[in-house]
Amino acid sequence: MSARHGRDDYYWSDTEQTHRMRAREMLKAHGAEIKKLYGPDPWLPRILTPLVLLQIYLGYRAKDMGWPTLLLVAYFVGGTITHNCFLGIHEITHNLCFATPFYNDLYALFVNLVVPVPYAMVFKTYHAEHHRYLGWDGIDTDVPTQYEGRYLSNYAGKFLFLTFQVLFYAFRPTVVRTIKFEKMHVINYILQLTFNLLVYYFWGWWPLLYFFISIFLGTSWHPLAGHFISEHFVFVGNGEQETFSYYGPLNWVMWNVGYHVEHHDFPNIPWTRITQLRKIAPEFYVDLHRTKSCPGTLFDFLLQPNVNLYSRVMRERGAAKREKLLPTSTGCMKSVEPHQGSCS
């Protein structure tokens, strides 16, 4: 249980990330059709806003629930809504809800309210780097650290990691790479803390407790939480493929985040149109490995001895120590069109 098994280092790559290369080729072959998919789509706020309001209402009613009822509601309803909010904020921070980035930021702050931690704007900053510098050593905070790989790459460690995924994703950036706080980060903190205080003042601590329990249950052993693992952990091959898609029915409640290869290829295509990308250019995706089951990935990660926290593709060794984030052997960093903008 405690002995490390599987890999003892990452899959190190000396090539440019595959998404940039594939996007260039896809634009050459199908540019006109693909560009029609670009741009925001208004459907997300129409669906997500009622869910946020429902979660606030359930928080208000939490004081009337017994513990068994509260835990069941927090897992099946609150956990699902909260995870939906996380993924909704992911979509929003790509500026895919409104034409103006500022309005996207404001809506992200609203959705953040039912996640009592003010994280939306910080996530936007880190997530932009995750796309631009995918797998870069010390830059991409989505990749587990050496300490996580060294001490959690056994059955007990992997179980701990899967159970408390949200804490690892929340605190890892503060250890790996600090960012400069901007005005929207400060507004996020002020607004969230004000909301939390108002909730406590008028309704007591039960709603906040319900929100936190929903976060934990919705990001732990929850069917939707499998996407954390399925997106970039390498289960097959030797690291030549660094992102994986899931095309199953859970995409209906995950804003199609399962189409993750497609999303990294063209992050400015919204969830309502990302599914069309494979239909336009199937030849670029037909030979890629895919994830068959999103919740099943949790158990595969835990039980497969050859997969652990080192099962990620890394590149640009020592990048965090550079004065400027210039590439070495991984090719030109000149952006292709789908990666331009603040959320590239």
Automatic annotation (TrEMBL):
Pfam family, one: FA_desaturase
Transmembrane spans: 66-86, 106-126, 155-174
GO biological process, one term: ceramide biosynthetic process
Gene Ontology CC: membrane
UniProt topology in membrane: Multi-pass membrane protein
Subcellular location: Membrane
EC number: 1.14.19.17
GO MF annotation: an example: sphingolipid delta-4 desaturase activity
Residues annotated as domain Sphingolipid delta4-desaturase N-terminal: 5-44
InterPro entries attached to this UniProt entry: DES1/DES2, FA_desaturase_dom, Sphingolipid_d4-desaturase_N
Major subcellular location class: membrane
Domain of life: Eukaryota
Keyword Transmembrane annotated: yes
UniProt entry keywords in alphabetical sequence: Lipid metabolism, Membrane, Oxidoreductase, Transmembrane, Transmembrane helix
Family to which the UniProt record says this protein belongs: Belongs to the fatty acid desaturase type 1 family. DEGS subfamily.
Protein name per its UniProtKB record: sphingolipid 4-desaturase
